[in-house]
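hey m, so remember when u said the tokens were messed up on ur end? i reran from scratch. heres the input so u can diff it against urs
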Amino acid sequence: VATLLCAIPSRTPADRLGRTLLALQAEATVDSDAVVAAAEEALRLGDHGLAERLARGALNHGEHFGARLTLSSALAWQGRGREADSVLAAVELGGLSEEQLMAWALPRAANQFWMLSEPERATTFLQNIRGRLSEASSHSTLDALSATFSMNAGNVRRAVEMAATVLDRPDAPDMAVAWAGSATALCSARMGRFDAVGPAASAAGGGGRDRARAPGRQQA
């Protein structure tokens, strides 16, 4: 049945996902990249259980970096942080590009901080990973996440300081600016520095980093 269905175009995402799962269950020859793409689609649709099954199916056919990332996300969204951490811990770092190392490090740090409630471990992990990276954009993204960690740990002044350094970098990627702007806005509100909230929130939403820089620095 799985072989016959492959010859017929899929009509909907649900149809496509169902066929991929059927092929795995039938132990038919599968394209691991296609299975991982289906797992990612299931994750975007909020079907974490199906994403887990598909990603595990891909891994059963051989090691696959993307399958590990998707599987860890599916597990984390189901509240299974320990399992998610174990999945990521099995990744061999030696052959990873800087982009892949970032794709691996960010969810692992976030999982450690929020799902496992291990803020010290997550912070140390980010510091160690930062030393392995050479791109300024990678440093900015990790620093912005560290600022978010500091904010959630209650160290709002440190969070504002770290976020300000990210916002001062003209080449910081959009995700780093969004995280840094959000941390600055929330921490400024907690400290009663309300005139800094609007510009920081605007930067977080893509409305202009330059307007967020001055108020945050003057009041830090």
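this time it looks ok to me. The first helix runs from residue 2 to 6. if urs says something different then somethings off w ur setup not the seq
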